[in-house]
Design a protein that fits this description.
The protein has 112 residues and is an all-alpha fold. The protein contains 5 helices and no strands. It starts with 11 loop residues before the first helix and ends with a helix. It is elongated and about 70 Å long. It has helices at residues 12-27, 36-48, 52-89, 94-101, 105-110.
């Protein structure tokens, strides 16, 4: 695939963003302060340039990362539910439990 870019005269913010692209195309790096959309575009290009085995490794790593995040979120929710149950046993109001745990009122009512 062949891509052509035409760099016209730009001012201010646009010129700064063009400089990030130029850095990527000339030195092959995206600077830390580059806009998020440029980082994402460069990630996609780099991913597409990987061979099949490397892509499989990247995909497996990303899946493991997402699984870990889901496990952490689940554990946090379970922990909040346990705290809510203890608060209910102590006779605290659902409104107060909601404020402390962040659980939805309906979720707290189901714990009764």
């Amino acid at each position: 695939m062949l891509v052509f870019l035409e760099l016209k005269k730009h001012s201010g913010k646009t010129q700064r963003h063009l400089n990030y692209w130029l850095d990527y195309f000339t030195i092959g790096k995206v600077l830390e302060d580059a806009p998020e959309y440029i980082k994402e575009a460069c990630y996609i290009v780099e991913y597409q340039n990987l061979d099949k085995e490397e892509r499989a490794m990247v995909d497996a790593t990303e899946k493991a990362h997402e699984d870990l995040k889901a496990t952490i979120i689940y554990a946090q929710k379970e922990s909040r539910e346990e705290i809510a149950k203890k608060m209910l046993k102590k006779g605290l109001t659902i409104k107060l439990i909601h404020e402390v745990t962040g659980l939805d009122v309906k979720e707290i009512e189901k714990l009764k």
